[in-house]
């Protein structure tokens, strides 16, 4: 019989997600960003002191505050629904009816198991059923859902679901090809491997449409 700690370690080491939504508490936004920064600053300071770092050194003095601000306002900023981009859509007046593909959207995310970076590219496509969305909004949606502790499978699904809701169509697809530094820089330390995830909705479940999309992106991602 495995103990809970062993099970949790096994889940983390194998990068297995436990839920389709980010596990955020109900009281996650009960305090302000500034209050969060102050609390995290003290925690980072304690970690560094425990590791034996000299925080009186000029190079290290500001590190706890810098890390706390980065956590709250940058790399985990996508946890805050107030930062969710407005996905404005427009009438497809020019009646473009083929798939639109946005390739090579940069993904910077953070693995929720080891808090190490996930770095890669997202390829997103949709087929309009009467509405279109600005190209930069697709990038912003990818960025928003990336800026939180994540698993890549969930991130891929969230991007598709958000675009489906915004566009009012199931015909959305996303493929992400990314390196996980928790695999590349620790554990097995395989610096060459990357992880590919995909989510296909509506017409993209048809083999021909899926093949056309995959031909467009060719998965020749370079990091």
Describe this structure in words.
The N and C termini lie far apart (42 Å). The chain folds into two domains: 33-74, no CATH class; 87-218. Helix 4 (135-146) runs antiparallel to helix 5 (152-167). With 223 residues, it is an alpha+beta fold. The strands form two sheets. A five-stranded mixed β-sheet has the order 5-2-3-6-7. A two-stranded antiparallel ribbon has the order 1-4. The protein has helices at residues 4-13, 33-51, 63-75, 135-146, 152-167, 181-184, 207-217; strands at residues 89-91, 99-111, 117-127, 131-133, 149-150, 172-180, 195-200. The chain has seven helices and seven strands. Strand 2 and strand 3 form a beta hairpin.
Helix content percent band: 25-40%
Rg over C-alpha atoms, rounded to the nearest angstrom:
20 Å
Structural class: alpha+beta
Shape: globular
Q: Biggest sheet, strands in spatial order? A: 5-2-3-6-7
* Order of H and E elements: HHHEEEEHEHEHEH
Strand fraction equals 15-25%
Q: What does the main sheet amount to?
A: 5 strands, mixed
Q: Please tally the helical runs, counting DSSP H or I stretches of 4 or more residues.
A: 7
Instruction: For the record, give the distance between the C-alpha atoms at the N and C termini, rounded to a whole number.
Output: 42 Å
User: How many beta-strand runs?
Assistant: 7
Unreliable runs: none
| Count of the domains | 2
Q: What's the pLDDT, averaged over the residues?
A: 90
